Amino acid sequence: xxxxxxxxxxxxxxxxxxxxxxxxxxxxxxxxxxxxxxxxxxxxxxxxxxxxxxxxxxxxxxxxxxxxxxxxxxxxxxxxxxxxxxxxxxxxxxxxxxxxxxxxxxxxxxxxxxxxxxxxxxxxxxxxxxxxxxxxxxxxxxxxxxxxxxxxxxxxxxxxxxxxxxxxxxxxxxxxxxxxxxxxxxxxxxxxxxxxxxxxxxxxxxxxxxxxxxxxxxxxxxxxxxxxxxxxxxxxxxxxxxxxxxxxxxxxxxxxxxxxxxxxxxxxxxxxxxxxxxxxxxxxxxxxxxxxxxxxxxxxxxxxxxxxxxxxxxxxxxxxxxxxxxxxxxxxxxxxxxxxxxxxxxxxxxxxxxxxxxxxxxxxxxxxxxxxxxxxxxxxxxxxxxxxxxxxxxxxxxxxxx
Length: 402
Description:
By secondary structure, this protein is mainly beta. Helix content is about 10%, strand content about 40%. The strands form 6 sheets. A 5-stranded mixed sheet has the order 25-3-2-1-26.
């Protein structure tokens, strides 16, 4: 094996799945050093993203046993996506760990009831706990986002603290940033958004794309228009973009997503659901309507990913009694349900698309079980408090999800 050029070994190993590479660290000291090398880890990730060879769906069950199921999604066969593998919870808890963000194979989790934040690599089952910043009492509205700063080669977690006055009017948004490289939090400039509030109604409300975090902000009664705010993780500068539709009289809840390499916004109307993509990030003139589908009663439809040839979109369909995946053909404008092997009926699942990677390779192993009970934190996330729901109802017409 010593006669094989190192460049060839590098190229071959970089094409393998993460779980296989973990086993191959035992082959020799040279292979161990190579697989742990940061240049190799980056090359492996870039190749995985380029070829979609390790694209996966992470199923997050928030209703039963708080488990996380991992489904391989090779896209070689658009009708059969692969075989699901049950992972269980990355850390023991009587409460659910919610996904607050994803970047480069790392999933950021937060336990809103007991407190605690962690980075988790599900493909290699490694974990790193993150200290939460000091939270004032009573606990304010908190939102979190997670992403990668390629300029400084650093993973960052952003906390947004929404503060309101006695009349329940939002007066400021304090922002703190955690650096994985420095292992510390710092305060940065507040969001320039007086009178607006972060539109947070559920799961993974803050998205990551092109080195920036993005989220929706909506105004009070006098200015009900929604806007998109982004934070560049390297420069720590904010930008504001309008959504692609001005008339909000007939719109239900907007939903900001990432679809492939595009920023994506889903707009719900009485009879249809429009999905727009921003073809050039940051260029408002590049908004383009990707598709429009009829609205189904009590069903929430969200785009997850493009097919390998880009001709179809994988949809997550959440209903009263089920969750399912379906392909939407962009040309034929038809929907076809996806067959999944090795997974129980999809009831009450939420999904995240991610890639297998070696990031966090030197992290701690996932905790299998623990006899210690953590104390309940006083800093609970009020996902949709009564005050926030009153604001939402003033600008959108809610629909029944469950």
